[in-house]
Design brief:
By secondary structure, the protein is an alpha/beta fold. It has 13 helices and 12 strands. The chain binds 1,4-dihydronicotinamide adenine dinucleotide.
Length: 362
């Protein structure tokens, strides 16, 4: 069996605890990984003057695959999220977020199996923003008025929403290619083109054009984002693969996580043409860090996505089945899940007890 090299960023808060679980479970499943462990975040600021030193970027570039624990973004520290920096640096244009019901987690629905593709590089997240009262804001307000684009109040801050053909096409293609490769039957493109005729209209028309290349192979539908949210909470089984611009993807993917038991269950990946970075959706949970009580499920399931990416599908399937078996048995549950299932976290399992239960079920 070959050994894979993977860059591991443990992160901070609960990051070191849940990435330890991840490594233990993958090792127990028999996959050999040479972990190149590098640190990023506030803890390395003093030493390197940046939360994301060059040697971390080099380590990711050389392994081409990385998995992260969450990293705290200190408020008012002047450093932007290292996740955003990684997405930009490596052009990780796909944010892939599956949401699948696991019995025994107290999730609202037991029949959700959605894979959401969120465009990761543009839209209102592009960071083209001007502050209220700035010269740039005044210029934009004057410009809009002089081009008959409407009146913007003088005390406004403004964000621009760029949506390009290039970025829309590659994310929609990624969703269709995933559907084909994984035996999925339908792709749904989500938009608000009835109101944003140019930006969302462009996304919608690009999706319709790309869908023609997969006609007869994968069903295609389009939905408006507000109706999508209502549809998801009333009948999530109606959705399969979904693709959407950045902002809607951020919100709708959290909604999907809520349908299947919350952020503690939600794995994710940021994928570009060359490099992929896997990570749980949740943050560093400073309120429970260092206590050994975090739920490692989302990180372990992110590890399963990593294994799929490395071609270790059999091991990934075994680990997912082991996680499901632990929840189905209902005896070893971390506090977050136990509270949902039984109303109280009393007698909950520790991160390590849960991890060992998963290993025993492999
Ligand atoms: P959070 O996701 O860290 O925590 C929200 C709530 O969920 C907390 O009560 C926490 O205890 C709980 N929680 C989260 N993950 C859990 C787990 N695995 N097991 C049990 N309970 C869990 O979100 P919050 O508090 O908004 O952010 C904390 C820090 O994390 C911030 O600095 C934020 O910037 C950072 N963050 C980092 C991310 C990343 O590196 N990928 C993603 C999101 C936030």
């Amino acid at each position: 069996m070959s050994t894979h090299t993977v860059c591991l960023i443990p992160g901070d808060g609960i990051g070191p605890e849940i990435t330890t679980s991840l490594r233990e479970v993958i090792a127990a499943a028999g996959v050999q990984i040479d972990w190149n462990v590098v640190e990023a975040g506030a803890g390395v600021m003093d030493e390197y003057g940046t939360p994301l030193p060059d040697h971390v970027l080099d380590a990711i570039a050389s392994a081409k695959v990385a998995i992260k624990g969450p990293v705290t973004t200190p408020v008012g520290s002047g450093f932007r999220s290292i996740n955003v920096a990684l997405r930009k640096h490596f052009d990780l244009y796909t944010n892939l977020r599956p949401a699948r019901s696991i019995a025994g987690t107290g999730a609202r629905y037991d029949d959700v199996d959605i894979v959401l593709f969120r465009e990761n590089t543009e839209d209102l997240y592009a960071g083209v923003e001007v502050e209220e009262g700035s010269a740039e804001a005044a210029e934009l307000i004057d410009w809009a008025a002089s081009h008959d684009l409407g009146t913007i109040r003088p005390d406004s801050a403004i964000s621009l929403k760029p949506i390009s053909v290039t970025a829309s096409e590659r994310i929609v293609r990624a969703a269709f290619d995933y559907a084909v490769a994984n035996g999925r039957h339908k792709v749904c493109a989500v938009h608000k083109a009835n109101i944003m005729k140019y930006t969302d209209g462009l996304f919608l028309h690009t999706a319709e054009r790309v869908a023609q290349d997969y006609a007869g192979q994968i069903e295609f539908e389009t939905r408006i984002v507000d109706a999508t949210c209502m549809g998801l909470v009333t009948d999530p089984s109606d959705f399969d693969v979904m693709v959407m611009p950045n902002l809607y993807g951020d919100i709708v993917s959290d909604l999907c996580a809520g349908l299947v038991g919350g952020l503690g269950m939600a794995p994710g990946a940021n994928i570009g043409d060359e490099i992929a970075v896997f990570e749980a959706v949740h943050g560093s949970a400073p309120d429970i860090a260092g206590q050994g009580i975090a739920n490692p499920t989302a990180e372990i399931l992110s590890g399963c996505m990593l294994l799929d990416h490395l071609g270790e599908r059999e091991a990934a399937t075994r680990i997912r089945a082991a996680v499901e078996a632990v929840f189905a048995a209902g005896k070893v549950l971390t506090g977050d899940v136990k509270k949902i299932v039984s109303g109280s976290a009393d007698g909950a399992a520790s991160t390590q007890e849960f991890t060992q239960a998963v290993i025993a079920a492999l």
